[in-house]
Amino acid sequence: MVKALLGLCALVSVATTLGIVVALFLPAFEFFREVSLRDYLTGTEWAPLFLQKSFGVIPLIVGTLSVTIWASLIAIPLGLGAAIFLSEYARPRLRATLKPALELLAGIPTVVYGYFALTWVTPHLESAGLDVGVFNALSAGLVMGVMIIPTVASLSEDAMSAVPRDLRYGAYALGSSKLQVSTRIVVPAAVSGIVAAFVLGISRAIGETMIVLLAAGQQPNLSFDPREAVETMSAFIAATGAGDVPTGSVEYKTIFAVGATLFVMTLIVNAVSIRLVGKYREVYE
Amino acid sequence: MSIAAANVPLQSGRKRGVWRGRIFVALLVLSLLVGFVALGTLFFDVLSKGVAYVDPVLLTNSPSSDPAVAGARPALLATLYLGILLILFTVPIGVGTAIYLEEYANRDRWYNRLLELNIQNLAAVPSIVYGILGLAFLVRGLGLGRVLLAGALILTLLVLPTVIIAAREAIRAVPSSIREGAYALGATQWQVVWRQVLPAAIPGIATGSILALARAIGETAPLILIGALTFISFNPTAMGPFTALPVQIYNWTKLPDPEFKALAAAAIIVLLIMVLLLNAGAIWLRNRYQKRW
Amino acid sequence: MNIIETPVQLAQQAERQLPSAEHREVVFDVSALTVSYGDKPALKNVSLEVYRNFVTAFIGPSGCGKSTFIRCFNRMNDLIPSAAVEGRILYHGEDLYGAHVDPVEVRRRIGMVFQKPNPFPKSIHANVAFGPRVLGMTNDLDGRVERALQQAALWDEVEDRLDESALSLSGGQQQRLCIARCLAVEPDVLLMDEPASALDPISTTRIEDLMHELKRDYTIVIVTHNMQQAARIADMTAFFSVEVDEGQRSGLLVEYAATPTIFTKPADKRTEDYVTGRFG
Question: What ipTM does the predicted assembly reach?
Fold first, then answer.
């Protein structure tokens, strides 16, 4: 009896997944009966709400990728650097203080980061001479990168800590310096976990909404020029869903079509990450 | 083949190597610092722009098109209510699921393993997808409309995976000797769980729940999607329209008037204080109860 | 013939043609060495000399500080933050812990093989080449790898699979690989901390035979809890024991002499008790 009740609790999570799948894909299928999948996936113009409609999703994907690229350029090297420091160089007490502090970066609400990108980063980029628009992909990407650093750092550090001490001792005993031990032994040995960390960070960047909504703009754009405004998939969903699109219309269904696209992208990326984590856990446990 | 080591001194010709090592550490520390410097800049910027507007007006007035008298009271109350509802919903369901998975479920059954995989996947789904879920089912599907309750339910689903994972770790950390002792005295499984395991796992569960709450009150995207409206001037009720603090911040930031941007900064200060206090509370809890075994 | 020979018998049987006292060259001169972890002394006041091209064994019950001691010779204790070393070790007359001494250079000259084989998760070739690469000895890398593997008596078994993962080797092979790894950087001394204790008897015998070969070119110091092993291969043996002083256990050197002496005519009763099996 008790078990049944508890099992019911567990079913909530199952219901959630089912709900997400139904909520996304049912309307998405309906959408693709009105708009051809080919036009959607290969079209280069996204104008679903205008009189002259066009449903090519590529500009949204370009927008998402543009921001993600900048976020990754920040989060991946800095996250890895922080992780190497925490894992190989920091004394236990320092590590115990720094790790929660790093988690704090991840705990700041994304709307706050969006505010920061719009009102501080963009003007400063402008005064640095970069000719960025009021809305631009670069500000959003940079701030998003900082937000993702803890994700990359934390998982990478876990992977590096799992490398057995014996390997380090063996390398030291041969006359290696700490730099050589860290870069030639530890990082290569932990590489699956580290790549999993990168992939997880990228996945978070793809799905992020508030930073881009506030700072990157709502202009579907085919250009990868970071100084221009773009529209990401998530920003489109948020802006349109909050608006007054009539339920059941094809414009309404674009929310779900784009949502389904986003969901599938993150699902694939996350599946890759989970498998990589499984790989590194295998080797050492 | 050995070296006539006797005549070669032990000093190194490794000057370059030593410098390379130092530069490397410097770069690593720099990596760490960038994040903290950015955070510090953010805090400083928000404080300098917004502190002037943090006053009773902010906390007691409703939004208005006149920034001089605009306040965030409805949004603050809504965030408070959302938080309370969130805890009420998430903790029982999350802990229940965790107990099921840790104490009752047979690990070899495929459906239990699928369940675990499912929870892992859900934890990585972007928050806006939860918003879509809410939009489709709760607001328009179930006909709940754009109400506070719907917001609470969606946030619950959003943070549920994290609470489940945290609760599971807390339950797993309880040594089996405690369980075995209770069984040996003739207790039923439920009695063991309810009287021995759960009480021991409470600190871990509480820490996880507080962290989940801290995350949820900062979430904006799902709420925007299910219609946390722009202009609410009355206090929210469970079945009425609502807005929340992060949404209010978003709306104010969007406005071109720089005074509203300053108001947004003020509201951010309030939100950050709430989030930081919750995080600090969770960390304090974790440290206080960590060395029980 | 006895199947199980006592260390005493082995010591008597082993051939030893050791140079006499005047012709011995001192590699390590240890004086009053004390090692503590935090405020707990692990090893107190050890003094002895290690001679060139000898196999020197450290034996004794567990907890007597033998491993701690051997780690002093290549400054591996530096890697343990709480470890403090007092006293002096001279290496070919130079203070090993001197202010201007670079631990990296020390570890190049004085290599170490560990109790549990620890090959890197890389190919066999990359394992052996790691040391030379890291130290900038990259000329004729393949030749170095081959010579090291030959000296470690592993070449014949791996010469056609150098690119395979080192983890695919058996335990005994992995340990010989670790020895080859050390040899590739052309050290002066080889430290071995219970190198065969994790291996099966056949691999153990191979490693012991290897040590006989290697001592022609290198100076070998070995820690072992296996008395028969020490009796078989060591030229000099140092016996360590534990003393309890106000509740604190610490290790100390009891006796140090040529192996036959330690096993047949020990000067100290504690040594005699240990080697005849009365304790330990």
Answer: 0.89
